Protein backbone atom coordinates (compact mmCIF):
# COMPACT_ATOMS: atom_id res chain seq x y z
CA UNK A 1 0.00 0.00 0.00
CA UNK A 2 1.12 3.55 -0.72
CA UNK A 3 2.12 5.87 2.11
CA UNK A 4 3.31 9.47 1.95
CA UNK A 5 5.80 10.41 4.66
CA UNK A 6 6.41 14.00 3.50
CA UNK A 7 4.21 17.08 3.25
CA UNK A 8 5.23 17.60 -0.38
CA UNK A 9 6.11 14.66 -2.59
CA UNK A 10 6.88 14.04 -6.24
CA UNK A 11 6.23 15.19 -8.83
CA UNK A 12 4.84 11.86 -9.97
CA UNK A 13 3.04 10.96 -13.16
CA UNK A 14 -0.72 10.98 -12.67
CA UNK A 15 -2.92 9.26 -15.24
CA UNK A 16 -5.44 12.07 -14.76
CA UNK A 17 -3.36 15.18 -13.96
CA UNK A 18 -0.01 14.74 -15.71
CA UNK A 19 3.12 15.73 -13.77
CA UNK A 20 1.63 16.07 -10.30
CA UNK A 21 3.29 17.53 -7.21
CA UNK A 22 1.54 15.98 -4.24
CA UNK A 23 0.65 17.75 -1.00
CA UNK A 24 -0.20 15.65 2.06
CA UNK A 25 -2.11 17.52 4.75
CA UNK A 26 -2.57 14.38 6.85
CA UNK A 27 -0.23 12.67 9.33
CA UNK A 28 3.08 11.53 7.87
CA UNK A 29 3.03 8.22 9.76
CA UNK A 30 -0.54 7.02 9.17
CA UNK A 31 -3.90 7.76 7.59
CA UNK A 32 -6.74 10.07 8.55
CA UNK A 33 -9.95 9.71 6.58
CA UNK A 34 -13.69 9.69 7.19
CA UNK A 35 -13.99 7.06 4.45
CA UNK A 36 -12.46 3.59 4.54
CA UNK A 37 -12.77 2.75 0.84
CA UNK A 38 -12.28 -0.87 -0.09
CA UNK A 39 -10.01 0.21 -2.97
CA UNK A 40 -7.92 2.83 -1.11
CA UNK A 41 -4.27 2.81 -2.14
CA UNK A 42 -3.31 3.71 1.46
CA UNK A 43 -4.98 0.60 2.94
CA UNK A 44 -7.49 0.21 5.77
CA UNK A 45 -7.86 2.92 8.40
CA UNK A 46 -7.37 0.37 11.18
CA UNK A 47 -3.90 -0.49 9.86
CA UNK A 48 -2.79 3.15 9.70
CA UNK A 49 -2.78 4.47 13.25
CA UNK A 50 -0.74 7.66 13.56
CA UNK A 51 1.09 9.65 16.21
CA UNK A 52 2.39 12.60 14.20
CA UNK A 53 0.29 15.79 14.12
CA UNK A 54 -1.25 17.25 11.01
CA UNK A 55 0.98 19.84 9.33
CA UNK A 56 0.09 23.46 9.96
CA UNK A 57 -0.03 26.27 7.41
CA UNK A 58 3.53 27.46 8.10
CA UNK A 59 4.95 23.96 7.60
CA UNK A 60 3.09 23.54 4.33
CA UNK A 61 4.26 26.96 3.13
CA UNK A 62 7.89 26.12 3.88
CA UNK A 63 7.82 22.68 2.25
CA UNK A 64 5.89 23.81 -0.82
CA UNK A 65 7.93 26.96 -1.43
CA UNK A 66 11.16 25.00 -1.16
CA UNK A 67 10.03 22.44 -3.73
CA UNK A 68 8.45 24.92 -6.14
CA UNK A 69 11.49 27.18 -6.12
CA UNK A 70 13.78 24.19 -6.73
CA UNK A 71 11.59 22.99 -9.59
CA UNK A 72 11.43 26.45 -11.14
CA UNK A 73 15.21 26.83 -11.07
CA UNK A 74 15.66 23.36 -12.58
CA UNK A 75 13.10 24.00 -15.32
CA UNK A 76 11.07 21.03 -14.07
CA UNK A 77 7.52 21.07 -15.37
CA UNK A 78 4.65 20.67 -12.92
CA UNK A 79 1.16 20.35 -14.36
CA UNK A 80 -0.73 20.13 -11.08
CA UNK A 81 -0.17 20.84 -7.40
CA UNK A 82 -2.41 18.13 -6.03
CA UNK A 83 -3.83 17.74 -2.53
CA UNK A 84 -4.27 14.02 -1.85
CA UNK A 85 -1.95 12.11 0.49
CA UNK A 86 -2.85 9.93 3.45
CA UNK A 87 -6.59 10.50 3.62
CA UNK A 88 -9.11 13.32 3.22
CA UNK A 89 -7.28 16.67 2.85
CA UNK A 90 -10.20 18.85 3.93
CA UNK A 91 -10.00 17.32 7.43
CA UNK A 92 -6.94 19.46 8.09
CA UNK A 93 -8.27 22.43 10.12
CA UNK A 94 -5.93 24.79 8.25
CA UNK A 95 -7.20 23.72 4.82
CA UNK A 96 -8.71 27.09 3.72
CA UNK A 97 -5.59 29.04 4.73
CA UNK A 98 -3.34 26.47 3.06
CA UNK A 99 -5.27 26.81 -0.21
CA UNK A 100 -4.64 30.58 -0.19
CA UNK A 101 -0.94 30.00 0.47
CA UNK A 102 -0.71 27.42 -2.30
CA UNK A 103 -2.34 29.67 -4.90
CA UNK A 104 0.03 32.52 -4.04
CA UNK A 105 3.09 30.26 -4.28
CA UNK A 106 1.85 28.74 -7.52
CA UNK A 107 1.41 32.19 -9.02
CA UNK A 108 4.95 33.14 -8.01
CA UNK A 109 6.91 30.03 -8.96
CA UNK A 110 4.87 27.83 -11.32
CA UNK A 111 2.07 29.94 -12.87
CA UNK A 112 1.18 27.35 -15.51
CA UNK A 113 0.38 24.69 -12.88
CA UNK A 114 -3.16 23.95 -11.81
CA UNK A 115 -4.13 23.54 -8.17
CA UNK A 116 -6.15 20.34 -7.68
CA UNK A 117 -7.87 18.85 -4.65
CA UNK A 118 -8.98 15.22 -4.45
CA UNK A 119 -11.80 15.09 -1.91
CA UNK A 120 -14.65 12.80 -0.96
CA UNK A 121 -16.89 15.92 -0.72
CA UNK A 122 -18.15 15.03 2.76
CA UNK A 123 -17.10 18.41 4.19
CA UNK A 124 -18.83 20.44 1.50
CA UNK A 125 -21.53 21.16 4.05
CA UNK A 126 -19.03 23.62 5.61
CA UNK A 127 -19.05 26.95 3.83
CA UNK A 128 -15.37 27.65 4.48
CA UNK A 129 -14.45 24.37 2.76
CA UNK A 130 -16.66 25.12 -0.24
CA UNK A 131 -15.21 28.63 -0.52
CA UNK A 132 -11.68 27.22 -0.51
CA UNK A 133 -12.52 24.54 -3.08
CA UNK A 134 -14.07 27.15 -5.37
CA UNK A 135 -10.71 28.96 -5.48
CA UNK A 136 -8.76 26.01 -6.91
CA UNK A 137 -8.56 25.09 -10.59
CA UNK A 138 -9.64 21.49 -10.14
CA UNK A 139 -11.95 20.64 -7.26
CA UNK A 140 -12.18 16.89 -7.89
CA UNK A 141 -15.05 15.59 -5.78
CA UNK A 142 -15.94 11.94 -5.31
CA UNK A 143 -19.33 10.31 -5.62
CA UNK A 144 -18.99 6.56 -6.10
CA UNK A 145 -22.46 5.51 -5.02
CA UNK A 146 -25.92 7.02 -5.50
CA UNK A 147 -27.31 5.20 -2.45
CA UNK A 148 -26.24 4.91 1.16
CA UNK A 149 -26.41 1.12 0.94
CA UNK A 150 -23.83 0.97 -1.84
CA UNK A 151 -21.66 3.64 -0.21
CA UNK A 152 -21.56 1.46 2.92
CA UNK A 153 -20.10 -1.37 0.83
CA UNK A 154 -17.67 0.65 -1.30
CA UNK A 155 -16.66 3.70 0.76
CA UNK A 156 -17.42 2.49 4.30
CA UNK A 157 -17.96 6.03 5.63
CA UNK A 158 -17.15 6.78 9.25
CA UNK A 159 -20.37 8.13 10.72
CA UNK A 160 -23.52 9.02 8.81
CA UNK A 161 -23.38 9.47 5.04
CA UNK A 162 -26.26 10.34 2.76
CA UNK A 163 -25.46 10.69 -0.98
CA UNK A 164 -28.47 12.96 -1.44
CA UNK A 165 -26.91 15.43 1.03
CA UNK A 166 -23.65 15.28 -0.93
CA UNK A 167 -25.56 16.09 -4.10
CA UNK A 168 -27.15 19.08 -2.37
CA UNK A 169 -23.70 20.26 -1.30
CA UNK A 170 -22.31 19.85 -4.81
CA UNK A 171 -25.10 22.03 -6.19
CA UNK A 172 -23.23 24.98 -4.64
CA UNK A 173 -20.56 24.67 -7.35
CA UNK A 174 -23.09 25.30 -10.15
CA UNK A 175 -21.32 22.72 -12.31
CA UNK A 176 -17.84 24.22 -11.92
CA UNK A 177 -16.21 21.11 -10.50
CA UNK A 178 -14.99 17.68 -11.54
CA UNK A 179 -17.00 14.66 -10.44
CA UNK A 180 -14.94 11.51 -9.82
CA UNK A 181 -16.50 8.04 -9.78
CA UNK A 182 -14.90 4.62 -9.40
CA UNK A 183 -16.30 1.70 -11.42
CA UNK A 184 -15.61 -1.74 -9.96
CA UNK A 185 -17.37 -4.91 -8.94
CA UNK A 186 -17.11 -7.79 -6.49
CA UNK A 187 -19.22 -10.74 -5.43
CA UNK A 188 -21.35 -8.34 -3.33
CA UNK A 189 -22.00 -5.47 -5.73
CA UNK A 190 -21.42 -3.97 -9.15
CA UNK A 191 -21.17 -0.18 -9.33
CA UNK A 192 -22.00 -0.36 -13.04
CA UNK A 193 -25.15 -2.44 -12.71
CA UNK A 194 -28.23 -0.78 -14.18
CA UNK A 195 -29.87 -0.27 -10.77
CA UNK A 196 -26.79 1.72 -9.71
CA UNK A 197 -25.86 3.28 -13.03
CA UNK A 198 -29.30 4.72 -13.74
CA UNK A 199 -29.55 6.79 -10.52
CA UNK A 200 -25.89 7.84 -10.85
CA UNK A 201 -26.50 9.09 -14.39
CA UNK A 202 -29.46 11.10 -13.15
CA UNK A 203 -27.20 12.75 -10.58
CA UNK A 204 -24.69 13.61 -13.30
CA UNK A 205 -27.45 15.10 -15.45
CA UNK A 206 -28.69 17.12 -12.49
CA UNK A 207 -25.31 18.48 -11.40
CA UNK A 208 -23.84 18.94 -14.93
CA UNK A 209 -20.20 19.04 -13.74
CA UNK A 210 -17.71 20.49 -16.21
CA UNK A 211 -15.96 17.13 -16.27
CA UNK A 212 -16.66 13.61 -15.03
CA UNK A 213 -13.67 11.38 -14.26
CA UNK A 214 -14.70 7.75 -14.62
CA UNK A 215 -11.94 5.40 -13.59
CA UNK A 216 -11.27 1.93 -12.27
CA UNK A 217 -8.69 0.05 -10.24
CA UNK A 218 -5.01 0.72 -10.89
CA UNK A 219 -3.19 -0.39 -7.74
CA UNK A 220 -3.31 -3.02 -5.01
CA UNK A 221 -6.49 -2.78 -2.95
CA UNK A 222 -7.04 -3.59 0.75
CA UNK A 223 -10.14 -5.68 -0.04
CA UNK A 224 -9.37 -8.68 -2.18
CA UNK A 225 -11.48 -10.02 -5.02
CA UNK A 226 -12.30 -6.66 -6.60
CA UNK A 227 -12.61 -6.57 -10.38
CA UNK A 228 -11.73 -3.57 -12.52
CA UNK A 229 -13.49 -2.25 -15.60
CA UNK A 230 -11.44 -1.59 -18.71
CA UNK A 231 -11.67 1.70 -20.59
CA UNK A 232 -13.75 0.29 -23.45
CA UNK A 233 -16.36 -1.14 -21.06
CA UNK A 234 -16.63 2.15 -19.15
CA UNK A 235 -17.00 4.10 -22.39
CA UNK A 236 -19.91 1.87 -23.43
CA UNK A 237 -21.58 2.15 -20.04
CA UNK A 238 -21.75 5.95 -20.17
CA UNK A 239 -22.13 6.46 -23.93
CA UNK A 240 -25.58 8.00 -23.50
CA UNK A 241 -24.08 10.69 -21.26
CA UNK A 242 -21.30 11.50 -23.71
CA UNK A 243 -23.88 11.57 -26.50
CA UNK A 244 -25.72 14.20 -24.45
CA UNK A 245 -22.60 16.37 -24.46
CA UNK A 246 -21.31 15.63 -20.95
CA UNK A 247 -17.50 15.74 -20.82
CA UNK A 248 -16.33 12.36 -19.52
CA UNK A 249 -12.72 11.20 -19.26
CA UNK A 250 -11.58 7.66 -18.53
CA UNK A 251 -8.62 6.19 -16.65
Structural account:
- The chain is α/β, with parallel strands linked by helices and 251 residues long.
- Helices cover 33% and strands 18% of the residues.
- The protein has an eight-stranded mixed β-sheet. The protein has a two-stranded antiparallel sheet with strand order 7-9.
- Strand 3, helix 2 and strand 4 form a beta-alpha-beta unit.
- Helix 1 packs parallel to helix 2 and helix 2 packs parallel to helix 3.
- It starts with 7 loop residues before the first strand and ends with a strand.
- The mean pLDDT is 95.
The residue fraction in helices comes out at: 25-40%
Termini, distance in Å? 20 Å
Mean pLDDT: 95
CA-based gyration radius? 18 Å
Give the neighbour order of strands across the main sheet: 1-2-3-4-5-6-8-10
Category by helix and strand content: alpha/beta
Low-confidence stretches: none
Count of alpha and pi helical runs: 8
Secondary-structure blueprint of this entry?
Layout: E1 8-14, E2 18-23, H1 57-74, E3 80-83, H2 95-109, E4 114-119, H3 127-135, E5 138-142, H4 148-154, H5 163-170, E6 178-182, E7 184-185, H6 194-207, E8 211-215, E9 227-228, H7 231-237, H8 239-243, E10 248-250
Parallel strand pairs: 2-3, 3-4, 4-5, 5-6, 6-8, 8-10
Antiparallel strand pairs: 1-2, 7-9
Helix pairs in contact: 1-2, 2-3
Amino acid sequence: MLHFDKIVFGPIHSRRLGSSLGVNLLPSDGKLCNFDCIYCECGWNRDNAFSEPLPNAAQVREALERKLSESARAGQRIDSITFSGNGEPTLNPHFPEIIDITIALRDEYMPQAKVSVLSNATRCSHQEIVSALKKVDNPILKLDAPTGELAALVNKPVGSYDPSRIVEALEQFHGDFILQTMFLRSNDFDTASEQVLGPWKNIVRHLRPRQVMVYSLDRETPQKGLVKYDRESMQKLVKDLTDEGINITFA
